[in-house]
């Protein structure tokens, strides 16, 4: 079986960053500009120039992006360690692909939801993605690293 788990690392980076680009699109479309000198302040500064619905979505996109950046190192290290420990490729492939899919679902829910009930699904999806990373660590620990 081929090992494509390392390809899920750049895929996870793309998934972590696409909410950032959607946020930029929303701000630029509503305000007609993008401040590239201080881009992290764009959403805050644009609040009065944007409709509240679009501004809230831009804020959620920003949060989804930040969460993706926070969880990526945990995932990336788990994939690398599982590969180093000799966890079967089929297992790593399945889990790493499942992580990327769970993060796509997480982003979709986060960026498009404003209800408390559906926010619970977002938390569940986040928990699944973190559980996948932890599973890879545990599988690697059980296998052990050979010198």
TrEMBL record:
Gene3D superfamilies in UniProt: Membrane associated eicosanoid/glutathione metabolism-like domain
InterPro entries: MAPEG-like_dom_sf (IPR023352), Membr-assoc_MAPEG (IPR001129)
Chief localization: membrane
Organism of this sequence: Funneliformis geosporum
Membrane keyword on record: yes
TM regions (residue ranges): 6-26, 74-101, 121-140
Record keywords, A-Z: Membrane, Transmembrane, Transmembrane helix
Subcellular location: Membrane
Lineage top rank: taxon: Eukaryota
Keyword field contains Transmembrane: yes
One GO location term (cellular component): membrane
Name of the molecule in the record: 388_t:CDS:1
Coiled coil: none
